[in-house]
Write a structure and sequence with these properties.
449 residues; alpha/beta; Aspartate Aminotransferase, domain 1; Aspartate Aminotransferase, domain 2; 2 domains; 7-stranded mixed β-sheet; 4-stranded mixed β-sheet; 13 helices; 38% helix; 4-aminobutyrate:2-oxoglutarate transaminase activity; transferase
């Protein structure tokens, strides 16, 4: 393996400071808080992480997709600093402030749909989902909610109820919220032999129609919530016909269509929002993650008449739409527009998909290479047994961070590697990271055969 690197700098020996902090973490932090890599960060910039022992890592995880504009963009840092000097928190429910209204106006402008919109600002993705459901129920007067297999919508009670992965998210955490139903989401490797992607998508639409006859009536369904591209589920890009088919059923039955764009939003898929790829205009859109370069803030933007359904005090929260988060988000959007990070996302995605499509020819363990924009993934399945290669991905993740690249797994079997590089990653950084990952895949595969 080529050990000469331009960006990463790691040692085979664990650092002293990291060991000390890891011992404290094990003593004072619950083990239920998962952790992908046993490192502690000292500083971060762009697509690079520096740990407390002086090691440098290429970040291909982006804090689970929260850093499309990279770590610590100077414009965001400056905006937060200036805001903190004026006021940090007044609570919008008590004393309002301009950045909240300005961000709400901006989100109305950039989200899909040429109709009047309003926005509520919150703290986290799960909180955005919860409030979107509350708004949908209030507006329609109905209670039922349909989500999809392999979907992920958070770890709160309602978020878990909507999520479709038992371990680690739901096991022994019930009972769950009532009136939640799961519909089939297309999964590329499950497409029946001889059936095209379009036909498979339409087949899943028919299954959805059956659900409305066998599980819950459309007259009882307030909303459908869908990730236009599934994140935790394995970066599943559905056929356009599937998304449009579900969308049309919603329109015909007074069912709100909620697009969960928490991971897909803000340029990740080569559009500002993934819904645009599918030609739909969601009634409500949930957003978080890359909205503010890592500061905690989230949003629900939707049709004005729907957003106005709750009465004063029925939605909101003490810290919702914090001034620091608002100014950070506004700075992020300026960066994205100025530097055309949406276009950059498309170019990054093409590079990643081309690299692994070529590698797939010599590594048949790679069963699928897929993605939309820079939201890309590779799925590993043993070619003989057809079983998910979870152990291979676990070992690969470990080998990668030991070699200076941070990656994440995904999928209900944990056999998918997903890539969420900051969109500001340079071509040289991207090439070096892919080279390291590719070498490690080849090395591990050679040990299997």
């Amino acid at each position: 393996m080529n050990k000469t690197r331009n960006f990463v700098s790691v040692s085979s020996k664990s650092g002293v400071k990291s060991k000390e902090l890891l011992e404290k973490r094990q003593q004072f932090v619950p083990r239920g808080i998962g952790n992908n890599t046993p490192i502690f960060v000292q500083k971060a910039q762009g697509a690079l992480l520096h740990d407390v022992d002086g090691h440098v890592f290429l970040d291909f995880a982006g804090a689970i997709g929260t850093l499309n504009v990279g770590h610590c963009p100077p414009e965001v840092v400056k905006a937060v600093q200036q805001q903190a000097e004026q006021y940090i928190h007044t609570c919008f429910h008590v004393a309002m402030y301009e950045p909240y209204v300005t961000l709400a106006e901006k989100l109305a402008q950039i989200t899909p749909g040429n109709f009047p919109k309003k926005t509520i600002l919150l703290n986290s993705g799960a909180e955005a989902v919860e409030n979107a459901i509350k708004i949908a129920r209030k507006y329609t007067g109905k209670t039922g909610i349909i989500s999809f297999t392999r979907g992920f919508h958070g770890r709160t009670l309602l978020g878990m109820s909507l999520t479709s992965k038992v371990k680690p998210y739901k096991f022994q955490m019930g009972p769950f919220a009532p009136a939640i139903y799961k519909a089939q989401y297309p999964y590329p490797l499950n497409c029946p032999e001889g059936m095209s992607a379009k036909e498979y998508g339409l087949y899943c639409v028919r299954l959805f129609e059956d659900l409305l006859l066998t599980e819950v009536s459309a007259e009882e369904v307030a909303a459908v919530i869908m990730e236009p591209v599934q994140g935790e589920g394995g970066f599943i890009v559905p056929p356009k016909e599937f998304v449009q088919g579900i969308y049309e059923i919603c329109k015909k039955n007074n069912i709100l269509f909620i697009a969960d764009e928490i991971q897909t939003g803000f340029g990740r898929t080569g559009e500002m929002f993934a819904s645009t790829h599918f030609g739909i205009e969601p009634d409500l859109i949930t957003m978080s993650k890359s909205i503010a370069a890592g500061l905690p803030i989230s949003a629900v933007t939707g049709r004005a008449e729907m957003m106005d359904a709750p009465n004063p005090g029925e939605i909101g929260g003490t810290y919702g739409g914090s001034p620091l988060g608002c100014v950070a988000a506004l700075a992020v959007l300026e960066i994205m527009e100025r530097d055309d990070l949406v276009g950059r996302s498309t170019r990054i995605g093409k590079t990643i998909l081309s690299f692994f499509a070529a590698l797939q020819k010599s590594v048949p363990l790679i069963a699928d290479v897929r993605g939309l924009g820079a939201m890309c993934a590779i799925e590993f399945i043993h070619p003989q047994t057809k079983q998910p290669a979870k152990e291979f991905v676990t070992q690969l993740t470990k080998a990668c961070y030991e070699s200076g690249v941070i990656i994440l797994s995904a999928g209900i079997h944990g056999n998918v590697v997903r890539f969420l590089t900051p969109l500001v990653i340079t071509d040289d950084q991207l090439e070096e990271g892919l080279s390291i990952i590719g070498e490690l895949i080849e090395e591990q595969y050679a040990n299997l055969i």
